[in-house]
Amino acid sequence: VQLKTKHSRIRRVDVESAEEMYAASQIYFPDADAGILCAAVADYRPETVADKKIKREKEEELTLHLQATQDIAAKPTRDIAAHLGEMKKQHPGKVLVGFALETNNEQQNAEGKLERKNFDFIVLNSLNDAGAGFRHDTNKISIIDRKGRTDYPLKPKTEVAQDIIDRLVATL
């Protein structure tokens, strides 16, 4: 993105790939008070990457299989959240915030991710609410921690961000 970081106490590190993000997180997380893991990192990457644009040839279809085959072998990207959750065990006092976008079994899936990744809390986004999520300037979230769930009404995304920061500050 081309957005600028507006607060002098926030360190922003720009990356372009999941591997770069993993490396940066390993370098900077030990010195951070908190990590807000809001990027949607792809779970798989192709083993081979084209060195130039793949041009359309006539009306042929191109299929990319994200599973191991003889033609294209997919490799899982490193699980950045899980690695930081493990690092957090050696760094008491750090807060780790995760996000979950769910369409079914929302509560169960978010709670499972909270535990597996060792988050302090997780922000649950639902695609089942009108006016929330993608293509809207509003969102409706729930924040889940080990004590329970807090639901928030539909509101502008800037106010949603403030709700998340307020919870983070209360957790620190």
Care to describe what's here?
This protein has about 170 residues and is α/β, with parallel strands linked by helices. The chain has four helices and nine strands, in the order αβββαβαβββββα. The chain is globular, with a radius of gyration of 18 Å. Helix content is about 25%, strand content about 20%. The strands form three sheets. It has a five-stranded mixed β-sheet with strand order 1-4-5-7-8, with helices on both faces. The chain has a two-stranded antiparallel ribbon with strand order 2-3. Strands 6-9 form a two-stranded antiparallel ribbon. The protein has helices spanning about 20-30, 80-90, 105-115, 155-170, and strands spanning about 35, 45, 75, 95-100, 120-125, 140, 140-145, 150, 155.
Order of helices and strands: HEEEHEHEEEEEH
* Silhouette: globular
- Number of separate helices: 4
Helical residue percent band: 25-40%
Helix and strand content put the structural class at alpha/beta
Biggest β-sheet strands, sense, barrel: 5 strands, mixed
User: Could you give the count of β-strands?
Assistant: 9
- Provide the β-strand percentage band: 15-25%
The largest beta-sheet arranges its strands as 1-4-5-7-8
Rounded to an integer in angstroms, the radius of gyration calculated over CA atoms is 18 Å
Give the integer mean of the pLDDT values: 86
Q: What is the first-to-last residue Cα distance?
A: 28 Å
> Any low-confidence stretches, pLDDT <50, length ≥5?
none
